[in-house]
Amino acid sequence: MQSNRYIIIFSLVLTAVLGGLLSGVSQVLGPTQKKAQDLDTKKQILGAIPSEKEALADMEPEQILARYAEVINSVVTDYQGNLVDTNEKGGPMVAEEVNVEKNYKKSVEDRMYPVFKYSANGEEAYILPVFGAGLWDAIWGFVAINPDLKTVRGVSFDHKGETPGLGARITSDEIQERYQKKSLYDANGEFVAITMVKGEKTPEDRLGPTRVDGMAGATLTANGVNDMLLNYISYYQKYFDKHVKGGAMSLNNQ
């Protein structure tokens, strides 16, 4: 009886001590982790602009953050295209703090939609976050769109668990560069986003302005990217209609 009591007391004390240590470590590392996440997000946003992506490789973290502050202005909109200035806690709404992954679990109408406006050296673009499902897990990224609201300046894709050498290739420059200068609209002026075709080494003349070459052996990941772009970019239509001169063309899927 005494031995059992000792074991129980020892286990409880050990659990309390370890729990306290873990809590302490979490509090100490929390700010560092948050700073690292903030840096990674801003790198991905800047990385959607080809010229900025090239420069990132030679920049220190503080330089990246300074560059971001210099060339990016951000706002948050709701599904109706209204600007949102206040978060759920009553504080200021910060686009960089909107968790797109958590928002993805909400209905389309209840999500928040960050917009990152890029302006540097006379060049402008709207950078939109996108999120979806790949073959094994989540995929996401940022799409930079020229002021004409039709032409893609560049993209930055990432994933949580796609297959190395296959679907994971969406993070490579080779794949992402295929989206540059492609159109979100077809010849009839209808929004179709950009489709990654099945198979690879498709001749450019068979792709046209709204399609990119595929990834051999990664059709399901490609389908996930296609759905992600088609759906998520369309959610910004009302924002463009209300706040960007001329708005965008009508979407054929709304």
Tally of DSSP helical segments: 7
Q: Unreliable runs, pLDDT <50, ≥5 residues? A: 249-254
Radius of gyration of CA atoms, rounded to a whole number: 22 Å
State mean pLDDT (0 to 100 scale): 88
Strand order, sheet with most strands: 1-2-3-4-5
Element-by-element helix/strand order: HHHEHEEEEHEEHH
Q: Could you give the count of β-strands?
A: 7
Helix content: 25-40%
Measure the end-to-end span: 71 Å
Q: Which sheet architecture does the biggest sheet show?
A: 5 strands, antiparallel
Based on secondary structure, the structural category is: alpha+beta
Strand content: 15-25%
Using the alpha-carbon principal axes, give the shape.
globular
Explain how this protein is built.
With 254 residues, this protein is an alpha+beta fold. It has one domain. The chain contains seven helices and seven strands. The protein has a five-stranded antiparallel sheet. A hairpin with a 6-residue loop joins β4 and β5. α1 crosses α3. The longest helix is centred in the N-terminal third of the chain and has 46 residues.
Report a brief summary of the structure.
The chain is an alpha+beta fold and 254 residues long. The chain has helices at 2-47, 50-56, 61-71, 100-104, 173-176, 219-234, 237-243, and strands at 72-77, 113-120, 123-133, 138-145, 152-159, 195-196, 211-212.
Descriptive labels:
alpha+beta, 254 residues, 38% helix, five-stranded antiparallel beta sheet, two-stranded parallel ribbon, 7 helices, disordered C terminus, globular
Topology:
Elements (H helix, E strand, L loop, with lengths): L1 H46 L2 H7 L4 H11 E6 L22 H5 L8 E8 L2 E11 L4 E8 L6 E8 L13 H4 L18 E2 L14 E2 L6 H16 L2 H7 L11
Parallel strand pairs: 6-7
Antiparallel strand pairs: 1-2, 2-3, 3-4, 4-5
Helix pairs in contact: 1-3
